[in-house]
Amino acid sequence: MTVVTEHEQSQPLDAEELVRSLAEEPPISPEFRARVLAAASEATATSTRKKGWLIATGFSALCTVCVLMVVVFNWKTTPANAPGVAEKNPAARTTGEDIINRALDGEGDVISSGVGH
Amino acid sequence: MNAPAKNNFQDEVRCCVSDVQRHGVIALGALFDLTAGRCLRYAQSITRSQEDAEDALQAAMVRITVKPQVLVTADHPWPYFLRVVRNEALKIIRRRRSVNATAGFIDKTVESTDHLEEDDNRRVIREALSRLPGNQREVVLLKIWEGMTFAEIADVLNKSPNTVASRYRYAMEKLQQQLSSLVQHQTAGTGSNR
Known about the structure:
A: mainly alpha; B: mainly alpha; Arc Repressor Mutant, subunit A; 10 helices; globular
């Protein structure tokens, strides 16, 4: 692989000097300067708004997920005959005490199971 | 000989961008005043139109203002900045091509240079430059006008230094050829007029 150095490539051409003679910076109007600064200012404000919106959205999404997790966890760990649940669902209210009471009253299959004797 | 001045300029650019990062848009004016002329000249050499060059520079400035940290952490902030300007200029050219207005703005450029009433030599050089292929012209302008090394130009153009160097060599050969023939033609024209 050939290594190119500045000395090898820079040719002592008049063309180089001629091109250099054109190197003048174009004039910049104050209106253009003001326009660029205004555009930059607007872009910064938009970027800040977007960042704020993203943070707010992310935070609310996180909160929603947390609340859902708590709800699911409670639902999974609450027994079916827990006081609150049993009131809503009478079928689930049957406890060992109920079975014994019913057996003493002579109801149902409980007698045949021998609990009444 | 140019190196200290160039490093100074790099440092100034880095300093201005750090200010933009710290203080926001308020500090952008200094960066604009420092770089706008050179950036506009470079963008104009790509787009060949004053308006498009201004749009490219504006987009680049906005980009730098929103994310100044990329320029602050860059090894060579000035070539990086020129790369941002170049990318924006190329985007604008691509958009122009899609509306098929290329012919229009080349005519406009020629027309606008006619209005400049510059002396014949400058016009001849400008024409010779505009006849170069875009990628070679870019290298010539970055090398001669910006005083960049081939490594820095390679950084701006995202090419290898060897590619950049050979583009420069071809461009200078063409320029010398064109300029000598144009100058001869001009001299002959002046002679026949006499």
